[in-house]
Design goal:
The protein is mainly α. Helix content is 39%, strand content 9%. The chain contains seven helices and four strands.
Length: 175
């Protein structure tokens, strides 16, 4: 889905030019050095490179790691106007965006987002030190009443519980 969304965004975006285009091309050359030449001809990589040249990227779990790093690097340098991503981009990364758009308030399988999920996904809105505040856009979801769904996902945060348990078996395995 994020690849299709990126295609739609790129259709409305002009080609990048000048220093921006040069910086993107340089990053592409460096970012793909570790990928064998025959793999660079994969459809997904060709699609990504075409979109990056328009200032649009996509990021999801099925993307090759060097391609993810390329998108992350271009995004953090401010060379991409739009990045369509799953929550893989929001986890543990300090790359705030001016605006975050959620295509749905539900997860693909497990119902509504939790307040913690919502905070994690939307916490990237507003670039620290640049924007006074950020914006979050939530697209309509035909499966949930917006008011009730929004109240649920913006409710109190749930406590974070670590699933890690240090046991004798853990120590033995490490040994």
């Amino acid at each position: 889905g994020v690849e299709a969304d990126a295609e739609q965004c790129a259709a409305a975006s002009p080609e990048t030019t000048g220093l921006t285009r040069t910086a993107i091309e340089t990053a592409i050359d460096r970012g793909l050095e570790s990928i064998p030449a025959e793999d660079r001809a994969l459809g997904q990589i060709e699609q990504l490179l075409r979109l990056l040249r328009r200032g649009v990227g996509f990021h999801h779990a099925g993307l090759l790691p060097p391609c993810k790093e390329l998108v992350e690097g271009l995004f953090s340098q401010g060379l991409l106007y739009v990045v369509c991503a799953t929550d893989t981009l929001s986890v543990g990364m300090n790359m705030p965006a001016r605006t975050v758009v959620l295509s749905s308030i539900s997860r693909p399988v497990a119902g509504l987002l939790t307040p913690n999920d919502f905070r994690q996904l939307t916490g990237r809105a507003g670039r620290r030190g640049i924007d006074e505040r950020g914006a979050v856009v939530i697209l309509p979801d035909p499966f949930h009443d917006f008011e009730r769904g929004y109240a649920a996902i913006t409710g109190p945060l749930e406590p974070i519980r670590s699933a890690f348990r240090l046991r004798y078996s853990t120590l033995l395995s490490m040994y």
